DNA sequence: ATTAGGG
DNA sequence: CCCTAAT
């Protein structure tokens, strides 16, 4: 840092000539995208694997007890690889109904062994009611049907015995019909989890949760472009069940990084086309734009009419359909209330999400550069699958469902023991925010209990990742600021029983996933992937201790994704804003970022935010050029006010000075407009010419 | 898609 | 940060 400043004042090196001269958009664009070549892997493999395994096992087993399933599913870890998960899943087809995902996705799945396809069938049998009981009823019915269906094929039953403990926690608060529904689903989910868990001992933790979702009218579903999720039979095993902890890492980048590191451990692994972050981002933006803009503009359900043709249930809520997208979280609580009060429940949805946490022995080396040494490493590969069955009916007796959204982010977090629980929370939260695109509040659970004192250090709290008792709970985060009721709910945590460290309990199922527009969070699941950490801003210098402890962390991610689709006939006013646009999570600029910004602006000027972005924030997808511009704006303002009036993380005065200098320089120097190509970067002449070569980041 | 500003 | 208008 210090030397950085010097660098700046060094003059020679201080303001380098614009690295990115203004160039034709086309060209620049290319350059900007290049970084995203990596792409991401569709994470559905995981789900597929689970499902497949489940199916397989189930088919052979008529038993409905968890015990049986367990036994049957038990697979010797050594055979994991030999036992490709190319289970006969043909009957299962998951259709990823997310437009964004499929439509413009660069994601080109390879031939898949498995495809889960949703068969949009009329929801003829879904009961609709105007009251809670009705809702509940609907849910139950759905579940039953589903089970029935499943039973035919898979024999997935509610394994209370197996999940008893977890069920308990869940059952604690079935105040809402929705909850009840969830519980049931959760159990099912557990089964799957169990199955997966049995697949390999390498699974440190598996967490399954159900995402509550509403079934959308089939029409809507159809409108979605369907994405085929390729299932790489061999991928899953290798990816998910690292046999040697040191050699294989399961990771997903949850942040906006584009690069994936591969561990060449699994040769069988098929090369997978990774979807680039950029792609994701694009899609997401598209989606958001669509919904943020379209919704408000459309009047009189114009949108619904065009989009949801033939959908009659939407009368009161059509608009909402388009809102869910980004409000996943915030609506959560509200939604539930709605469920309660909402007169109509048009859809019953069943969503499942699975989270698999993998505990890598060691952190990926690649992360080192970005991550200061840390004592705790929490790596979690979480996959949440949201699938809703538009219909549980299956003529052929096959289970059909669609995946609404799927996220299999790997949260790779390294925290010093001295870091606080709060920081841990933030770290996780940010990751999730990036992934889910929503504002999520993360609760840290230890031994199933929510850790309250966020100021305690991990050490003090007793959070040792070796204990399989660390969990995270997603809570709805209300922009409005009121505490979310959901927090009151019994936290769903990871099983703390050490007996089965591999399997974790169901996560809080209270998840609502938007159906249509959920931004498919393309998250790749790849064991070869080495996650990078970008929590630098979160954990500045604190990360100093390097403890190569073998930490296991189970991260249970239970995204709460509100479903706007639900009957929300009520006044839109109230939840209008919140539902339409969930504010992005606030990410205060760190000093480091500020410095990067300052430097970039010094060189590029104040009118080339895109270039600034590329230059200094290319890897920070959550920082858009608009953000940078805004930040600059605030920086200029900040620099002009008295230090006492400044808030937040104090920005070093020297940086502010630079801000002012650059600001005045560029505002005065019209050259950018004149020569529009490359204006002379601001030359700082203050200090002696001292060039310090320092490479940051 | 970017840029520029207002809110 | 969000939202818009204008490019």
From TrEMBL:
GO cellular component terms given for this protein: nucleus
Domain Myb-like, first and last residues per copy: 581-636
Location of the protein in the cell: Nucleus
Biased composition (Low complexity): 380-391
InterPro entries to which the protein is assigned, alphabetical: Homeodomain-like_sf (IPR009057), Myb_dom (IPR017930), SANT/Myb (IPR001005), TPR1-6-like_ubiquitin (IPR057625), TRP_plant (IPR031105), Ubiquitin-like_dom (IPR000626), Ubiquitin-like_domsf (IPR029071)
Domain Ubiquitin-like residues, every copy: 399-463
Region (Disordered): 58-77, 356-391
Superkingdom to which the source organism belongs: Eukaryota
Residues covered by the HTH myb-type domain: 581-640
GO MF term list: telomeric DNA binding
Keyword entries, A-Z: DNA-binding, Homeobox, Nucleus
PANTHER family xref list: TELOMERIC REPEAT BINDING PROTEIN, TRF-LIKE 9-RELATED
Official protein name in the record: Homeodomain-like protein
């Amino acid at each position: 840092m210090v030397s950085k400043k010097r660098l700046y004042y060094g003059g020679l090196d201080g303001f380098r000539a614009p690295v990115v001269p203004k160039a034709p958009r086309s060209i620049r664009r290319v350059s900007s995208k290049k970084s995203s070549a990596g792409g991401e892997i569709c994470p559905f493999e995981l789900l597929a694997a689970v499902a497949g395994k489940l199916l397989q096992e189930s088919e052979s087993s008529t038993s409905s007890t968890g015990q049986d399933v367990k036994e049957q599913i038990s697979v010797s870890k050594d055979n994991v690889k030999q036992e490709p998960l190319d289970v006969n899943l043909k009957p299962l087809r998951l259709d990823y109904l997310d437009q964004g995902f499929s439509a413009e996705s660069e994601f080109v799945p390879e031939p898949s062994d498995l495809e889960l396809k949703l068969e949009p069938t009329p929801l003829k049998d879904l009961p609709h009611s105007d009251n809670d009981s009705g809702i509940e009823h609907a849910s139950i019915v759905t579940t039953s049907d589903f089970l029935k269906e499943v039973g035919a094929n898979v024999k997935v039953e509610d394994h209370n015995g197996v999940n008893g403990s977890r069920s308990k926690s869940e059952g604690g608060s079935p105040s809402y019909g929705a909850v009840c529904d969830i519980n049931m689903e959760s159990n099912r989910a557990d089964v799957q989890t169990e199955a997966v868990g049995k697949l390999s001992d390498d699974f440190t933790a598996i967490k399954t949760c159900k995402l509550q979702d509403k079934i959308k009218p089939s029409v809507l579903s159809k409108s979605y472009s369907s994405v085929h999720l390729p299932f790489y039979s061999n991928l899953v095993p290798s990816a998910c069940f690292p046999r040697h902890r040191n050699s294989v890492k399961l990771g997903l980048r949850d942040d906006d990084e584009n690069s994936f590191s591969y561990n060449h451990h699994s040769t069988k692994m098929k090369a997978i086309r990774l979807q680039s972050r950029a792609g994701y981002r694009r899609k997401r933006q598209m989606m958001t734009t669509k919904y943020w803009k379209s919704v408000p503009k459309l009047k009189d359900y114009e949108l619904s009419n065009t989009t949801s043709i033939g959908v009659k249930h939407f009368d009161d809520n059509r608009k909402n359909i388009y809102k869910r997208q980004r409000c996943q979280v915030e609506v959560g609580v509200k939604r539930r209330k709605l469920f309660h009060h909402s007169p109509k429940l048009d859809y019953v949805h069943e969503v499942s999400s699975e989270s698999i946490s993998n505990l890598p022995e060691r952190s990926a080396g690649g992360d080192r550069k970005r991550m200061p040494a840390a004592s705790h490493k929490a790596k979690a590969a979480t996959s949440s699958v949201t699938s809703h069955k538009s219909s549980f009916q299956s003529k052929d007796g096959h289970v059909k469902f669609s995946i609404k959204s799927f996220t299999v982010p790997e949260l790779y977090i390294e925290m010093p023991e001295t870091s606080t629980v709060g920081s841990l929370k933030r770290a996780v939260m940010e990751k999730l925010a990036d992934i889910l695109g929503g504002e999520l509040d993360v609760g840290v659970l230890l031994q199933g209990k929510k850790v309250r004192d966020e100021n305690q250090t991990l050490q003090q709290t007793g959070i040792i990742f070796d204990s399989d008792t660390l969990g995270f709970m997603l809570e709805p985060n209300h922009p409005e600021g009121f505490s979310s009721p959901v927090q009151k709910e019994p936290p769903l945590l990871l099983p703390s029983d050490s007996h089965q460290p591999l399997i974790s309990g169901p996560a809080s199922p209270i998840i609502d996933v938007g159906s249509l527009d959920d931004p498919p969070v393309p998250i790749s699941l790849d064991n070869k992937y080495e996650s990078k950490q970008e929590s630098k801003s979160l954990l500045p210098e604190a990360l100093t201790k390097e403890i190569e402890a073998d930490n296991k962390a189970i991260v249970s991610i239970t995204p709460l994704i509100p479903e706007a689709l639900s009957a929300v006939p009520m006044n839109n006013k109230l939840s209008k804003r919140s539902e339409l646009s969930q504010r992005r999570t606030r990410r205060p600029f760190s000093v480091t970022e500020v410095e990067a910004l300052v430097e970039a602006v010094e060189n590029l000027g104040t009118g080339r935010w895109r270039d600034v972005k590329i230059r200094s924030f290319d890897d920070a997808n959550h920082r858009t050029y608009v953000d940078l511009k805004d930040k600059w704006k605030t920086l200029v303002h900040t620099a002009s006010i008295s230090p006492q009036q400044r808030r937040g993380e104090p920005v070093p005065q020297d940086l502010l000075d630079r801000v002012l200098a650059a600001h005045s320089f560029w505002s005065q120097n019209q050259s950018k407009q004149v020569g529009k190509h490359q204006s002379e970067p601001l030359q700082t002449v203050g200090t002696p010419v001292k060039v310090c070569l320092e490479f940051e980041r």
